[in-house]
From TrEMBL, chain A:
It comes from Mycena sanguinolenta. InterPro entries: Queuine_tRNA-ribosyltrfase, TGT-like_sf, tRNA_ribo_trans-like. This is TGT domain-containing protein. GO terms for biological process: tRNA modification. It comes from the Eukaryota. Residues 16-444 form the tRNA-guanine(15) transglycosylase-like domain.
TrEMBL record, chain B:
GO terms for cellular component: cytosol. InterPro entries: TGT-like_sf, tRNA_ribo_trans-like. Residues 13-351 form the tRNA-guanine(15) transglycosylase-like domain. This is Queuine tRNA-ribosyltransferase catalytic subunit 1. GO terms for molecular function: tRNA-guanosine(34) queuine transglycosylase activity. GO terms for biological process: tRNA modification. Keywords: Transferase, Zinc. Gene3D superfamilies: Queuine tRNA-ribosyltransferase-like (3.20.20.105). It comes from Mycena sanguinolenta. It comes from the Eukaryota. Pfam families: TGT.
Length: 480, 389
């Protein structure tokens, strides 16, 4: 079981294409980069049923483990057979690469401090402490394809002292070394690049990964000469960076540029050809910027999955076609809660022709369950019409869960097409930077459409969601 | 009007297998119809529902009239197109008893025309089944008959009789004499209606009273029209109703209960939220053909996500709808093969063997010639006897 990454680019920074290749007993999964990772919650892609997996662009799936700490031992570690994590969560080992992290990289909630030999994780049954030794046992028992070693990211309110940042980089390196210790089954390890928003701390962390080890330290990570040798790639989590920057406002600083500077600081002395992963980029604008200025290879689509949660059907393309609309910037999608869509019988996207998703291109089921010998055989499969904005608007207004299933399928397909276009532009050697600038000029980066969707989602949720009757009773009591 | 053909009859009970041919295709009866209140089976897309072999679903006129409203449905070309559902759909009226619906019989038919359902229901006056005031129940029954006439007249003027089929709804509460009078009057209108529903039940009445009302109605209703008992969804209720001659039933129970983590099986419902399932790596039912079970979704995984992730509701809904369809499909096969009595015996033994047979089921099935206790040492329990975990 091994994950390799190759890129044609030898430059340390700048846009690049590549291939991440997973080899596992008889199968190989190839993922072209820049590419898409899909996140999970409690082990599932939110709103997407197992029978719908085939209708979404799923290849790299990130699985935060913390919810499983609610049971001891964690349930996936008890699953028998090959590929226990795939089996338990219902992913296909021939198609899906599973990357395990302890915590959800998009979760910005405050969590109690970590210690020298434990990390605090958040579960629905409260905070659970987990040691690097336990993590190692759980990882080997559940056998993911890729694991992110435990990072010491402080989740107490920023800003952080220099002492705290120093601790953070030391613990992150130590916990990585712990995971690297010789084991019967070698792991594919990614490391979170520590150091917060301190440029020197980030450089120092990378230096600690790449310095040659001696004596007992070297024995502990044998046969690697330095801990970086045992690492397949680097992870950059945007949420803690954004929080720390928000806590130390600086008029003169451009946060987007600063993010690029910080990520580059971590990569200054790192091996340039290793896989680079970014979690929780806020928008396609930020993604394009990180591809152009740094050369990031994989991105999650948290923002697009959030858009599906809040009723937004994405509708954008890269590169922007030549006939650019003048004047007002366009939204990246449609907030289908808006009443203007009640009578709109068009498919979700104008910009994305022939969207292949399960909502825009539904296919009749290949097989239909037969319940008795007398049942009439189903007529031959016909092409079903695309799901319309009007129907989705209706499902959203009536608080129907299938609305979000369809939006998840659609939004992931749009983002997947976006990455395919990015790769196309890079492979054809077009002026990538010019395309990025045109994209930034064309589409609204603030994602105002999502903020509006979030408000309208909340309104419907309060009016019709779970616990509605209790809320109504409470409101009536207040009136009395 | 829909074509209704009886293919086989059980030689012991009043159960029968029939084919109901509607504008969107044929459906084999007896069948259970899952409920899509708002135009979607909760959590599922139309493609998912179709893959489960579901050929008839129920939409709610009252809800679809509120949202999205008839204007949108007419623009969309009916509820089938709006939902992307290519099978048969049925629409029915407000279940909100006691609440003024502000609908006239004519308006209700017009809304159902806009919805475009294959089967449409008359507007009826529903009173709670436990209403003690016989005069009120009688008034509601008589009003339902008068409203049937207005619905028939309005439907016949519309020119939609070829594609949409009007069902009458028998009312009369728990009073067998009122039920008799209602059935008699409605049968007089038989040539104008495609089927008969038994309404006003499942309102908390004694099960031993419930089955006697169904029994009285099915004995009198004409052979050559489908019979539909409204709001019936527990497995034992369904099979008893089939034995009494019912062809169709609907209920939110299997879909609603799924969202709370209850999975239906041939050995009774499983409450997947219970800690005992947290380390149970088997599927809900290894013999079940539904995608949730065939893909190997374990009880442990469902325990981890139920009531926390919508995909859990989806997975259990898929299973429960399939369970109901399998139960009724099995009944069709058994009736065709002349083995319905043994199908009933083995269902009840599997389902209630550990806790005991509900007495009302014994009584109901005895009335159609089956004695579950014959050659059995399973005990009998009073009350509804419904199984719960």
């Amino acid at each position: 079981m091994s994950l390799s990454f190759s890129t044609a680019s030898s430059a340390r920074f700048g846009p690049r294409t590549g291939t991440a290749k997973m080899l596992r007993a008889g199968t190989s999964i190839c993922i072209n980069t820049p590419g898409l990772m899909v996140g999970t919650s409690r082990g599932v892609i939110q709103h997407l049923g197992r029978d719908q997996h085939a209708r979404a662009p799923l290849r790299w799936i990130t699985v935060p483990f913390e919810s499983f700490l609610e049971n001891s031992p964690p349930t996936p570690t008890l699953q028998l057979g090959f590929n226990p994590l795939h089996t338990f969560l219902g992913f296909n080992p021939n198609q899906h690469l599973l990357a395990l992290t302890l915590r959800d990289p998009s979760d910005a909630n405050e969590t109690p401090s970590n210690g020298n030999d434990y990390i605090s994780a958040s579960t629905s049954r409260g905070i659970k402490k987990i040691t690097p030794t336990q993590w190692r046992i759980y990882v080997h028992a559940s056998a993911p394809d890729v694991v992110v070693s435990l990072p010491d990211i402080p989740w107490t309110p920023p800003p952080f002292s220099q002492k705290r940042i120093t601790k953070s980089i030391e613990r992150t390196a130590t916990w990585l070394a712990n995971l690297l210790a010789p084991a019967p089954q070698p792991l594919n390890i990614l490391v979170h690049m520590a150091g917060g928003i301190s440029d020197p701390a980030r450089r120092a962390f990378t230096d600690s990964l790449t310095e040659t080890l001696h004596g007992r330290e070297a024995e502990a990570v044998h046969p690697h000469k330095c801990i970086d040798d045992g690492v397949t790639g680097y992870v950059f989590d945007m949420v803690p960076l954004r929080m720390a920057m928000d806590a130390s406002p600086d008029e003169a600083r451009d946060d987007q540029e600063e993010t690029v500077t910080l990520v580059k600081a971590s990569l200054m002395s790192a091996q340039p050809t290793k896989l680079r992963v970014v979690n929780s980029a806020a928008s396609p604008h930020e993604i394009l910027c990180l591809i152009r200025d740094v050369g990031i290879d994989m991105f999650d689509a948290k923002w697009a999955q959030d858009a599906a949660q809040f009723g937004v059907a994405l509708d954008f393309v890269f590169p922007v076609p030549n006939a650019v609309t003048k004047g007002k910037q366009r939204d990246l999608g449609h907030n289908l809660y808006r009443t203007q869509y009640a009578h709109d019988f068009s498919p979700f996207s104008d910009s994305v022709p022939n969207c292949p998703c399960g909502a825009c291109a539904p296919v009749a089921p290949q097989t239909v369950i037969s319940h008795s010998a007398v049942d009439a055989h189903a007529p031959p499969a016909a092409i079903a019409p695309p799901c319309t904005r009007a129907y989705l608007h209706h499902l959203l207004q009536t608080h129907e869960m299938s609305a979000h299933s369809m939006l998840v399928m659609h939004n992931l397909a749009v983002v997947d097409a976006f990455f395919a276009s990015v790769r196309g532009v890079l492979e054809r050697g077009e002026d990538f930077s010019a395309h990025v600038n045109r994209f930034a000029a064309e589409y609204d980066e603030t994602l105002a459409v999502m903020d509006e969707g979030r408000i309208m989602w909340k309104e419907v949720d309060i009016a019709r969601g779970k616990g509605r009757l209790a809320r109504e009773r409470a409101a009536a009591e207040v009136e009395d | 009007m829909a074509k209704f053909e009886i293919l086989a009859r059980c030689s012991t009970t009043r159960a029968r297998v029939s084919r109901l041919t509607l504008a969107h295709g044929a459906t084999m009866l007896p069948t259970f119809m899952p409920v899509a209140t708002q135009g979607a089976i909760k959590g599922l897309t139309s493609q998912q529902v179709e893959s489960l072999g579901i050929t008839l679903i129920l939409n709610n006129t009252y809800h679809l009239n509120l949202r999205p409203g008839t204007a949108v449905l007419v623009e969309a070309g009916g509820a089938h197109k709006f939902q992307g559902f290519r099978k048969r759909a049925l629409s029915f009226e407000s279940p909100f008893t006691g609440e003024p619906t502000m609908l006239t019989p004519e308006e209700s038919i017009s809304i159902q025309h806009a919805i475009g359902a294959d089967i449409i229901m008359q507007l009826d006056d529903v009173v709670p089944s436990l209403t003690p005031d016989r005069a009120r129940v009688e008034e509601a029954m008589e009003r339902s008959v008068r409203w049937l006439d207005r619905c028939i007249a309005h439907h016949n003027q519309s020119g939609k009789q070829d594609t949409q089929n009007l069902f009458a709804i028998v009312q009369g509460g728990l009073d067998l004499e009122l039920r008799d009078r209602c059935v008699t009057q409605m049968i007089e209108r038989k040539d104008q209606v495609a089927g008969f529903a038994v309404g006003g039940l499942s309102g908390g009445e004694e099960k031993d009273v419930f089955w006697r009302v169904i029994d009285r109605c099915t004995q009198k209703l004409p052979e050559d029209r489908p019979r539909y008992s409204m709001g019936i969804g527990f497995a034992e209720d369904l099979l008893v109703c089939v034995a009494l001659g019912i062809d169709m039933a609907d209920c939110v129970f299997p879909t609603r209960t799924a969202r709370f983590g209850i999975a239906l099986t041939h050995h009774g419902p499983l409450n997947l939220r219970l800690a005992k399932y947290a380390k149970d790596f088997g599927p809900i039912d290894p013999k079940c053909p539904c995608p949730t079970c065939t893909e190997g979704t374990s009880r442990a995984m469902l325990n981890h996500i139920i009531t926390k992730e919508t995909t859990a509701a989806q997975a259990v809904t898929i299973h429960n709808i399939t369970f109901q369809a399998q139960l009724m499909g099995g009944a069709r096969d058994a009736i065709m093969n002349g083995t319905f009595p043994s199908y009933l015996r083995s269902f009840f033994a599997n389902y209630f063997g550990d806790v005991g047979y509900p007495e009302w089921c014994i009584n109901a099935l005895r009335s159609v010639g089956i004695d579950l206790l014959e050659g059995s040492d399973i005990k009998v329990v009073p009350g509804s006897g419904a199984k719960w975990e």
